[in-house]
Amino acid sequence: MAALRPLDSYLVRVAELGNAIREHRLAKGWKQAELAKAVALSPTAISHFENGSHVPRRDVTRRIDDALDAGGRLWRFRDELDDNPDAKWIARYLREQSKAATIRQITGFVPAMLETEEHTQLALEAGMPFYGGNLQDKIDYRAKMRAILRKPQPPTLRVVMWESALHTMAGDTRVKREQLLHLIKRSHDPNVELRLLPFHIGSIFMYEGFATIIGRPRSSPLAHRAIGRLGKFTTNQTSVAELTRLYDHLHDLALAPDESRAFLRKTVEELPPCP
Predict the structure, then answer these.
(1) pLDDT at residue 4 greater than cutoff 60
(2) Cα-Cα-Cα-Cα dihedral of 33, 37, 39, 41, to 10°?
């Protein structure tokens, strides 16, 4: 297998899962064909899993874990690769934001809390071939994310959004127009601040990735930083402080809320006519 870059967390975890399957298979004294027979798969499939070229489905991973008496170890590796709502880190992301007093985000996508229902569905449908999982579960999860801002005492959401988010939206011209207009409308909410970071202002910082800083009423702040398809939570004061400084810097660089709304309106005007 080609050497992996240390920061490519998703590929590292895929490799770790493959290595763990091989390790438990050899510890049991099985050949790939014997494991394949035990879980009703082909030896080729087992080979793909072990060399990291394919990721086993969640149900397949459970069967392999049981067959190899891995005690849940293989399942834990697989769980960290999944973006389905029953993955532990995904469930925690919703839980923490549901309890938040403030949420600050740096993002290159339309935030889930500010999506239209139609854009949510189309974006998730487009990702199914790559990410798998259960589409309806993901749609329900996003609905719960949107509902957080409609609570009687909702958190304050402050978003710094790269201009790239406006060019990667799902759907046709009509869907994109409605999503842009929805962003403008929601940006007037008293608990929502949306600031756009145009390419010509903040492009040199795009490699910094996407992050969420969650202010919790009775606990220290929690930060979540996305790296590839994975995310990492931290309450480490130094790490949270570093992300907070990055957010503050990008917040200061970004367009003010009124300027951001004007930018969004201009983007709407430049869209081609609906068919």
Answers:
(1) no
(2) 70
The answer to whether 25 and 68 have CB atoms below 8 angstroms apart is: yes
- Mean pLDDT computed over every residue of the chain: 88
DSSP secondary structure of 243-275: HHHHHHHHHHHSPPHHHHHHHHHHHHHHSPPP-
CA distance 62 to 204: 43
CA–CA distance, 224 with 212 (Å, rounded to integer): 5
Q: What is the mean pLDDT of residues 18-37?
A: 95
Q: If you ran DSSP here, which 8-state letter would residue 14 be given? A: H
Please say if the pLDDT value at position 2 is more than 60.
no
How far is the CA of 76 from the CAs of 17, 20, 139, in angstroms? 9, 11, 24
How many angstroms separate the CA atoms of 37 and 25, rounded?
13
Per DSSP (E only), the strands in 130-268 are 156-162, 192-197, 210-215, 222-227, 230-234
Strand, coil or helix: 57:
coil
Whole-prediction pTM:
0.78
CB atoms within 10 A of CB 156: 16
Sorted by sequence, the CB contacts under 8 Å of residue 182 that are 6+ apart come out as 114, 115, 116
Q: Write the pLDDT tens digit of every residue in 223-249.
A: 998 765 567 899 999 999 999 999 999
Contact 187, 257 (CB under 8 A): yes
81 backbone dihedrals φ, ψ, rounded to 5°: -95, -5
What per-residue confidence (pLDDT) applies to 227? 62
What is d(CA 33, CA 8) in angstroms, rounded to the nearest whole number? Answer: 31
DSSP percent split of the chain into helix, strand, coil, nearest 5: 55, 15, 30
Q: How far apart are CA 209 and CA 222, in angstroms?
A: 17
